[in-house]
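Lab intake sheet, docking and co-folding queue.

SAMPLE TYPE: protein with bound small molecule
LIGAND NAME: adenosine-5'-triphosphate
LIGAND FORMAT: SMILES
REQUESTED OUTPUT: full 3D complex as structure tokens
PRIORITY: normal
SUBMITTED BY: R.K., bench team

The fields below were copied directly from the construct record.
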Amino acid sequence: MRPMLSLLDVTLSYHSLSGETKAVSHLSFSVEEGEFVTIVGPSGCGKSSILSMLAGLIPPSSGSLSVNGNIGYMLQKDHLLEWRTIRRNAQLGLELQGKLTPENIAFVDHMLDQYGLGDFKDRFPSELSGGMRQRAALIRTLAVRPDILLLDEPFSALDYQTRLSVADEIGTIIRKEGKTAL
Ligand SMILES: Nc1ncnc2c1ncn2[C@@H]1O[C@H](COP(=O)(O)OP(=O)(O)OP(=O)(O)O)[C@@H](O)[C@H]1O
Ligand SMILES: [Mg+2]
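RESULT FIELD (auto-filled):
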């Protein structure tokens, strides 16, 4: 079976006026369907760069990548739009893709109910806790039914205790939805 994600001998250098920075050097790995793989390393070691290449935002300098499915990319900041309600934030990806069908609207409402935001659908992001905001951002990412989730330290803005519980909750949600995650 073809892996969901794979990198083969990938190198990435950034070029700027001050010179060249090698962010990734001869990296190879793959992620199979349903796996939850974590990259661990110090700040600046190239984690976000790897995700950006997999998301197609920057091309590798050499080597090859393959992605076998639709990608949902969840960033460090939740990027909820403060002037839209939680429901309308969660629907944003669908709206941008022109897929705001009654079926998809019901799918989003169902996830909001299921993941503890049922009573907050018509509230604004500023009325939610950090952990609730992250759940709303995850539902927005899941709403477009990605096969693969790229999660770039989406909980790092939360305090330690909240981070533990939100990471746990989100891990459960991802397993329940049967997603492949990096
Ligand atoms: N747009 C850019 N232009 C130039 N250099 C960059 C750019 N983005 C990242 N870098 C450099 O590439 C290297 C890897 O950065 P990257 O953001 O991938 O690290 P990271 O592992 O995600 O770090 P952190 O844990 O702090 O988020 C760093 O040396 C960084 O300075
Ligand atoms: Mg990073």
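REVIEWER NOTE: DSSP finds six helices and six strands in the chain.
SIGN-OFF: pending second check by T.M.
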